[in-house]
Design goal:
The protein is of the alpha/beta class. The chain folds into 3 domains: 3-203, Thiamin diphosphate (ThDP)-binding fold, Pyr/PP domains (Rossmann fold, 3-Layer(aba) Sandwich), CATH 3.40.50.970; 213-366, TPP-binding domain (Rossmann fold, 3-Layer(aba) Sandwich), CATH 3.40.50; 379-563, Rossmann fold (3-Layer(aba) Sandwich), CATH 3.40.50.970. Helices cover 37% and strands 17% of the residues. The strands form 5 sheets. A 6-stranded parallel sheet has the order 4-3-5-6-8-7, with helices on both faces. Strands 17-16-18-19-21-20 form a 6-stranded parallel sheet, with helices on both faces. Strands 12-11-13-14-15 form a 5-stranded parallel sheet, sandwiched between helices. Helix 2 links the parallel strand 3 (28-33) and strand 4. Helix 1 crosses helix 2, helix 3 (62-75) packs parallel to helix 5 and helix 16 packs across helix 23. The N and C termini lie far apart (56 Å). InterPro entries: DHS-like_NAD/FAD-binding_dom, Myo_inos_IolD, THDP-binding, Thiamin_PyroP_enz_cen_dom, Thiamin_PyroP_enz_TPP-bd_dom, TPP-bd_CS, TPP_enz, TPP_enzyme_TPP-bd. Residues 411-562 form the Thiamine pyrophosphate enzyme TPP-binding domain. Belongs to the TPP enzyme family.
């Protein structure tokens, strides 16, 4: 047997460089790295040696460079991914939040944190977490609950089995998610005679599981028995590549559809059967259909509480669920009729079995009325008052084209965009499974790396921007252009509204309601310029629109800051959401809010 003598780190990087996606490109497109004493000597040397075979990028923070990797995978519909490496200690634990984000959203990313010495000779090494009762534990064990596969590389030959297992998970459509390979730092530097054939290129195919015949027949029967079905399209629609199949299915059988946060953009907003979004951030016309639906057909959705209005929006008596999902865990939720299969294959087979079966027209007039309502919300202010978030979205929408992609993650904007944004097919990217503040800037960079021809627009509030903005400097350095619209409402406006809606006093959310000696006065445009970005503060919606046009020709990121009114919500749509209100309080407002909360609880469907 022919062998090649390499260090374990050299073998890992060499192997990753020849793993291929279905289109023949690298599956692991590159490696984000911040070096420290746990990875600089081993992995760092290996990445340098193979820098022509697989690129290495330097981030500013371990969590946000992982966010960029996750956004890249999401924008590629899980067909490609990236790796992220850090030192031991804080470098590693900084990535745990990002791992949780990837896990919730079922997205592939390869985490390679440095680990303690396998030989334990220098214990305790700098930054080592010592478990007083278990010598096998390190800080990297924090990853175990938030990754799909965990392994600790403590011998150089471990990578012969660990690496194929890692990519098996990352390319498995049902169990897809993040992987952590905790790499002991002395092991990284140890040499081993690896089989030469281990480094032969391999293509990783994404399988399309066929449905069980009995489940398929039951699904068809459920649809034929329905009178007012509604399709709820989730992220699995995109990951399956089933966008056109879904549209054909809906039009063939005249079934209206709504899209979740993860599924938005599967179908162009101008399609007449597209009724927007369901649930807490639902459109008025979409939620009206949801209330009347006697069969809810979930396609690649996990039925998160925002989608279901905490299980109050699908309120038709005797309502049934049909859940088409690649994973049995999701397909069986809420006693649904499961159809465990690839979304594209499942829809094609159901449609063939339904033949010419069609349903009556939905209420198209309600859809038209909804867009008339949102047209009014989008209109610019007529006076000197601060614009609302809806008016900012309207301005951005008017200046977006079919090649534009809007993205966000947390705060006011995700809900407002879900209910109001008019997304072209493929033009929407929302991290709302984990709703992680600080994802936006890094995520926009990752999306642009995945889809360089897209006009990427990042919507972010001042609170989320303050959480994590340093990858703006990375995007400048790497000449990755995108547009950031930063709405400054001087605090956590979204949570302030929720606090007040549940009877609480405004407290610790808006900057003026938080403990302070000096009033906050942050110049966000100057801050962005200090990192090299184009940046401007605008004083009106008209100025915002003019700057949006200028940004389209930029070669580095552009940040446009605009002050907004923190008080108004979206102004239309929406639904009840289960946020527990205290049973006992000295505040009259809380007691009144509790009465409304108990009304909502009575509308919930029983937990199955």
């Amino acid at each position: 047997m022919t062998t090649i003598r390499l260090t374990a780190a050299q073998a890992l990087v060499r192997w990753l460089s020849v793993q291929q996606a279905e289109d023949g490109s690298r599956f692991i497109e590159g490696v984000w790295a911040i070096f420290g004493h746990g990875n600089v000597a081993g992995i760092g040397e290996a990445l340098h040696a193979h820098r022509d075979a697989i690129p290495t990028w330097r981030g500013q923070n371990e969590q946000t460079m992982a966010h960029a990797a996750i956004a890249y995978a999401k924008a590629n519909h899980r067909r490609k991914a990236m790796a992220v490496t850090s030192s031991i200690g804080p470098g590693a634990t900084n990535m745990v939040t990002a791992a949780a984000l990837a896990h919730v959203n079922r997205l592939p990313v390869l985490f390679i944190p440095g680990d303690v010495f396998a030989n334990r000779a220098p214990d305790p090494v700098l930054q080592q977490i010592e478990d007083f009762d278990d010598a096998t534990v390190s800080a990297n064990d924090c990853f175990r609950p938030v990754v799909r596969y965990f392994d600790r590389i403590s011998r150089p030959e471990h990578i012969l089995t660990a690496l194929p297992r890692a990519l098996r998970v990352m390319t498995d459509p049902a169990n897809c998610g993040p992987v952590c390979l905790a790499f002991c730092q002395d092991t990284q530097a140890e040499a081993y005679d690896y089989p030469a054939n281990f480094f032969e290129p391999r293509v990783w195919h994404i399988r399309r599981p066929e449905p069980d015949q009995r489940e398929l027949e039951a699904a068809v029967a459920a649809i034929k028995a329905a009178k007012t079905p509604l399709i709820v399209a989730g992220g699995g629609t995109l990951y399956s590549g089933a966008e056109q199949t879904l549209l054909t299915f809906a039009k063939t059988h005249n079934i209206p559809l709504v899209e979740t946060q993860a599924g938005k953009g599967a179908v162009d907003w101008e399609e007449p059967l597209h009724f927007g979004s369901p649930g807490v951030t639902g459109t008025g016309c979409g939620n009206a259909l949801a209330a009347k639906a006697d069969l809810v057909i979930g396609v690649g959705t996990r039925f998160q509480d925002f989608t279901t209005g905490s299980w109050t929006v699908f309120s038709h008596p005797g309502r049934k669920l049909l859940s088409i999902n690649i994973h049995g865990y999701d397909a069986h939720k809420r006693a649904a009729q499961p159809l465990v299969a690839d979304a594209k294959v499942a829809l094609e087979k159901i449609s063939a079995a339904l033949g010419k079966h069609r349903f009556p027209d939905p209420d198209f007039a309600a859809r038209d009325k909804w867009f008339q309502t949102t047209d009014a919300l989008f209109a610019a202010p007529k006076g000197n008052e601060l614009p609302t978030d809806a008016q900012v979205i309207g301005a951005v929408d008017r200046n977006a084209g079919k090649q534009s992609l809007i993205m966000c993650a947390a705060g006011t904007m995700p809900g407002a965009l879900h209910v109001l944004w008019r997304a072209a097919q493929g033009g929407y990217h929302m991290e709302y499974g984990y709703s992680c503040m600080g994802y936006e800037i890094a995520g926009a960079m990752g999306i642009k790396m995945a889809q360089p021809d897209r006009d990427v627009i990042c919507m972010v509030g001042d609170g989320s921007y303050m959480m994590a903005n340093s990858e703006l400097a990375t995007a400048v350095m790497m000449a990755i252009p995108f547009t950031v619209v930063l709405t400054d409402n001087r605090g956590y406006g979204c949570i302030n509204r929720l606090q007040k809606a549940t009877g609480g006093a405004p407290f610790n959310n808006m900057l003026d309601d938080s403990y302070h000696v000096n009033a906050a006065n942050i110049d966000f445009a100057a801050h962005a310029r200090s990192m090299g970005a184009n940046a401007v503060r605008v004083a009106s919606i008209a100025e915002l629109e003019a700057e949006m046009q200028k940004a389209k020709s930029a070669t580095i990121p552009t940040v446009i800051v605009i002050d907004t009114d923190p008080m108004p919500g979206t102004g239309a749509g929406g639904h009840w959401w289960d946020v527990a209100v205290p049973e006992v309080s000295d505040r009259t407002e809380v007691n009144e809010a509790r009465k409304g909360y108990e009304t909502g609880l009575r509308a919930q469907w029983p937990i199955n």
